[in-house]
Structure formats: structure tokens, C-alpha cells
Design a protein that fits this description.
Helix content: 25-40%
Strand content: 35-45%
Structural class: alpha+beta
CATH class: Alpha Beta
Radius of gyration: 14 Å
Distance between the termini: 36 Å
Oligomer: single chain
CATH architecture: Roll
Number of strands: 5
């Protein structure tokens, strides 16, 4: 199945450390969603915004195991349309935190996500939005 990651799970090393070997990673984005980093990261609906991430092909059982771990078990799967290129959009599963559980800040997470997003090569305007959450 296709999964859209927007946080530190975009790092295949993090996934492999959890015993998961994703296939076919490729970058994409969601329109009308905004990244929010509280104590945890999530995407929230926000018209006119764009959130970047990585789509990977994963085994459904491995994904279920990943999101049953402490710290991420509260995330809920949702189908989203990921834009991979001007001519290619795919449907993928994206795990998001319910808005009522999104609170606080996590500068350390934001710094790690900024470094990873820069390494992946996301647009500078998106990197600046992440950088603002490191303060």
C-alpha cells in the first residue's frame, strides 16, 4: 500500500530501525494541508497551504505495527491525494493526529525535521516554515 509520510518517518533509516523496509520512496505534496509541530507533528486542513512529504510502498501489516507503538498509536489513517508531479497524483494513506491532541511545542523535533527536509530537497519556502517552528 502507498503511505504518505511528512515527519521523521520520511527517513528510511528510522523505518528500518523499526524493522520496516519501505519500497519506492518518492517526494510529493498535499494541497490544502499545513504542517503543525506541537509535542508531536501532524497535518491540519488549511486552504491554500502545501505540505511536503515522501510516499513509500509498504506492507499493510508493517504499517499497522509501526502505528501501534507508543507515541504514535493516537494517529488516525486517512486517504489523501498526493501530487507527485504536474501530471501524476496518487491516493495514499496518511496518518494524522486528531487536532485536539495537537498541543505544545517540540523544538528538537522541528530541528530534526528541518535537517531531514533540507536533505530531501524540499522547497526553501517550506523549509522556512519548518525553521520557524524551531524557535
Amino acid at each position: 500500500m502507498e503511505v504518505f509520510f511528512y515527519g521523521l518517518f520520511m527517513d528510511t533509516t528510522v523505518l528500518s530501525n523499526n524493522g520496516i523496509l519501505p519500497l519506492n520512496p518518492r517526494t510529493g505534496y498535499l494541497n490544502d494541508y499545513k504542517l503543525r509541530i506541537g509535542k508531536k507533528a501532524s497535518l491540519i486542513p488549511c486552504e491554500g497551504e502545501r505540505s511536503y512529504g515522501v510516499v513509500m510502498t509498504m506492507d499493510k501489516e508493517a504499517l499497522h505495527k509501526l502505528y501501534n507503538q507508543p507515541g504514535v498509536a493516537e494517529y488516525i489513517p486517512e486517504e489523501v491525494n498526493v501530487i507527485l508531479s504536474p501530471t501524476e497524483t496518487i491516493t495514499a494513506t496518511c496518518y494524522k493526529l486528531p487536532p485536539e491532541l495537537l498541543s505544545g511545542t517540540n523544538e528538537s523535533y522541528a530541528r530534526s525535521l528541518y535537517k531531514l527536509s533540507k536533505k530531501i530537497g524540499f522547497p526553501s519556502e517550506y523549509l522556512e516554515k519548518i525553521k520557524e517552528m524551531t524557535r
